Amino acid sequence: MKTVILLLATTSLYVGYYLYNNYYRKDFEFSKGSLVISGDIEVKYKIKIADNFTKREKGLMFVEHMPEDEGMLFIYDDESLRYMWMKNTYISLDMLFVSSDMKIVHMKEGAVPFSEELIPSLVPIKYTIELNAGQIKNKNIKIGDRIEFKLDTVN
Question: Region 107-124: what's the mean pLDDT?
Fold first, then answer.
């Protein structure tokens, strides 16, 4: 019985430490910025930026509502084949996969909430953009459109 209690206490401490370090620390806050997608029309979004492993891992998990003019930009250290999923994600998303030359090279419309199915970029990418489902169709976003982003100087 003492072993079980010790094991539960140790596990609880570990989980608490993990959650604090990965989700609640002040330095975990997402940077903010703006994004422009240029194609047939120019579309602007306010974005949160996931630029390290922990932020990319969390992404939009547990977000229950996102305004139509907002999204998330994932920035990777290098250009490579990437996979996304919708684990613990409450809202349906459109995903834009973007190469290092800032062009959209692949898209996924209407990713299903909570799905653990892997969504591949199909080609090497440097960035992924997540927007509310329907944005690709409603804003006529296409493969080949260009993106431009900048960080806010003050969050």
Answer: 98
Average pLDDT of the segment spanning 54-73: 95
Q: What are the φ/ψ torsions at residue 69 (nearest 5 degrees)? A: -95, 20
Domain boundaries, the chain: 31-151
The reply to whether CATH 2.60.120.230 applies to domain 31-151 is no
Each residue of 67-94: b (16+ CB within 10 Å) or e? eeebbbbbbbeebeebebebeebeeebb
pLDDT value, residue 86: 97
Rounded percentage of the chain residues whose pLDDT exceeds 90: 77
pTM of the full predicted structure?
A: 0.82
DSSP-derived secondary structure for 81-92: --EE--TT--S-
Handedness of CA 28, 136, 95, 34 (dihedral sign): negative
Task: For residues 138 and 127, give the distance between their C-alpha atoms in angstroms, rounded to a whole number.
Answer: 22
Question: Tokens 């970029």, residue?
Answer: 121
